[in-house]
Design brief:
This protein is mainly alpha-helical. The chain contains four helices and no strands. Helix 1 packs across helix 2.
């Protein structure tokens, strides 16, 4: 899975929104970052993950992970 690129993308997005000025307090920064996460979630929701079928097959080999995946599959 390409986790590094996703993390770098989020960090880059955070840098862009926090670079634009001073903040009166810590809460203001947290609110801004929360709103950015919500925007990113909406943008990335329902996006296909490259190679997910291979990753899922490898995770199915572990009993604990297999049980967790089946539990959350049923929740959908």
């Amino acid at each position: 899975m390409y986790t590094t690129n996703a993390i770098e993308s989020v960090n880059s997005s955070f840098r862009k929104v926090t670079k634009q000025g001073a903040f009166p307090n810590e809460t203001a920064v947290f609110k801004l970052l929360y709103l950015r996460v919500q925007e990113l979630y909406a943008k990335w929701n329902n996006r296909m993950i490259p190679g997910w079928s291979n990753v899922r097959n490898q995770l199915e080999m572990d009993e604990r992970m297999s049980a967790l995946m089946h539990k959350y599959d049923k929740a959908d």
